[in-house]
Design goal:
8 helices; 2,3-Dihydroxybiphenyl 1,2-Dioxygenase, domain 1; alpha+beta; binds nickel (II) ion; about 270 residues; 10 strands
Length: about 270
């Protein structure tokens, strides 16, 4: 990371979208290929439960703008989530067919931040080109170390978003689709035994069968980020693991749990 990326051409169909998103995510998600290799070596075919994105709640780049390419291709807006302490709002989108992942988009509400913080965000957002492929834009702005520090001091989420831009924040292994693991705790133990670290904020497993969703994640793998005036090693993207349980009507729960998501956001905090 480097020069702001030129606006990419929007892929036509959803399979092509997710292939592009995965390709953009891999170089900044050191644990994802490790976990893929470990699972494939056991004969598993990894399915993706959901893809998550982050953005600023600013005109042209807000949650609705980020979700628009998915909505235009058949995704349907579903539940909303609030994280007041982190000043985040989120919504998940349900896919037009069950073999496709859910999409989870969060946005950072800017009202309560300092004038200096908001001035930096304004400068970044002003550099975003008009595009119908915002989720694939990469980091479309120049960024100095000082501006990064101004954001990260008030919001780890904002610092991460400024440093990495529009790349999936995480992909997620659909634990229900694995054939050789009965539950998330067994999968976690397997990963730990192979040297994969798991985030412990809120416990290694966030959620419960009663909440209809259990989730774990790696920390954001360390990535070298180029700023206009230097380089830093920062937590990049993370990889998540999700096991879903059936609702009373027998269908699988497809939503998210605020208390769990609140902790998972911390997977990209600087340590
Ligand atoms: Ni997630």
């Amino acid at each position: 990371m480097h020069e702001p990326t030129p606006s990419p051409a929007a892929p036509r169909d959803l399979a092509a979208w997710f292939a592009c998103l995965w390709a953009a995510y891999l170089p900044v998600s050191p644990w994802a290929p490790v976990i893929h290799r470990l699972l494939e070596a056991r004969g598993e075919r990894v399915q993706n439960d959901h893809v998550a994105f982050r953005t600023f709640a600013a005109p042209g780049v807000d949650l609705d703008a980020l979700a628009q390419p998915f909505v235009a291709r058949g995704y349907r807006a579903a539940d909303t989530y609030r994280f007041p302490e982190k000043r985040l709002f989120a919504r998940h989108y349900e896919p037009p067919s069950p073999d496709l992942p859910l999409v989870f988009v969060s946005e950072l509400r800017l009202e309560a931040f300092s004038p200096a913080f908001r001035a930096v965000v304004d400068r970044l957002v002003a550099q975003v080109p008009a595009t119908d492929a915002l989720p694939l834009l990469g980091r479309p702005w120049h960024l100095s170390v000082a501006d990064y520090e101004t954001l990260a001091a008030e919001s780890e989420y904002a610092g991460w978003l400024a440093a990495f831009g529009y790349v999936p924040n995480h992909f997620t292994v659909r634990v229900n689709a694995l054939r050789t693991f009965d539950d998330l705790a067994t999968l976690n133990a397997f990963l730990r035994a192979h040297g994969v670290p798991l985030s412990t904020a809120g416990g290694e497993i966030k959620g419960s069968p009663a909440a209809l969703l259990e989730q774990s994640s790696t920390p954001g793998g360390e990535v070298e980020v180029a700023f206009d005036d230097g380089r830093r090693r920062l937590p990049g993207c993370y990889y998540e693991l999700a096991r879903r349980y059936p609702r009373p009507d027998g269908t699988l729960f497809t939503g998210f749990v605020e208390g769990s998501a609140d902790r998972l956001f911390q997977s990209t905090d600087r340590r």
